[in-house]
Amino acid sequence: MTDSHAHLDACAEPDAVVARAREAGVTRIVTIGTGIDSCRAALAVADANAGVVATLGIDPHQAATPDATRVDELRGLLGHAKAVAVGETGLDGHHGADTLREQRALFEAHLALAEALGFPIVVHSREASADTAAVLAPFSGTVILHCFSEPDLLEAALERGYYVSFAGNVTYPKADALRWCAARVPADRILAETDSPYLAPQPVRGRPNEPMHVRHTLAVLADARGEPVNELETLIDANAAAAFGLGAA
């Protein structure tokens, strides 16, 4: 099983978190850098642990900070052997409505970087579905919509062949719309993630999240899609390998 999005550098004792995930059958984790220091920490965790790769970016919450001027440093870090994608990047109209112009400029810089390097892009979008779709429209590379939470973005995702990744919030009792979306995503485009240490799925809600909990999300996705859990697990693992250009776990 693959957890396609986890912030291992934000987890307590990341090496132990990875070990627990492996014991639970989660053999591959994509850890995320959210700023230059975070990217360096993500690479350090990836270097120290087999089965961990890194996606590197300066997230939208950093768009009005000095980190937003360090895209050239980000380019250098993406040359690391364990770097597999650019991001997370994108637009957040919930926590950053006053910096959307800066967020868009940073998002566009990440897209240009991904295009130049031939890397996938990992996208954060919250309360910004129309603007996110517009910014992504010219991009010809692989797009992974992380922690999918915007049903209004689904049609564009389906039309354009984006990967759609679901996190623990799809398990919450009131998340019927997200489960409806999960049922519509093609079999070769669905992913599962934890967004650790955030968004713990319902059975462990209120506790720090970690990659081993991705199985709770998998179970809910399988139920929403009317598919056997083991078959969806195999599909999601293959999709993660394709999306991030990985070999067998």
Descriptive overview:
The chain has about 250 residues and is of the alpha/beta class. The protein has a single domain, classed as Metal-dependent hydrolases (TIM Barrel), CATH 3.20.20. It contains 9 helices and 8 strands. The longest helix is centred in the middle third of the chain and has 18 residues. The termini are close together. The mean pLDDT is about 95.
Concise overview:
With 249 residues, the chain is of the alpha/beta class.
Give a quick set of tags describing it:
TIM Barrel, about 250 residues, alpha/beta
Measured between the Cα atoms of the first and last residue, the distance is: 8 Å
SS-derived structural category: alpha/beta
Total strands: the figure is 8
The fold-level CATH name is: TIM Barrel
Shape: globular
Q: What number is the mean pLDDT?
A: 97
Output the CATH class name.
Alpha Beta
Within CATH, the superfamily carries the name: Metal-dependent hydrolases
Following the backbone from N to C, one meets helices and strands in this order, namely EHEHEHEHEHEHEHEHH
Amount of beta strand: 15-25%
Query: What's the number of domains?
Result: 1
CATH architecture: Alpha-Beta Barrel
Total helical segments:
9
Rg, Cα atoms, Å:
16 Å
> Spans of 5+ residues with little confidence (pLDDT < 50)?
none
Helix content class: 40-55%
Strand order of the largest sheet: 1-2-3-4-5-6-7-8
> Main sheet, how many strands, which sense, barrel?
8 strands, parallel
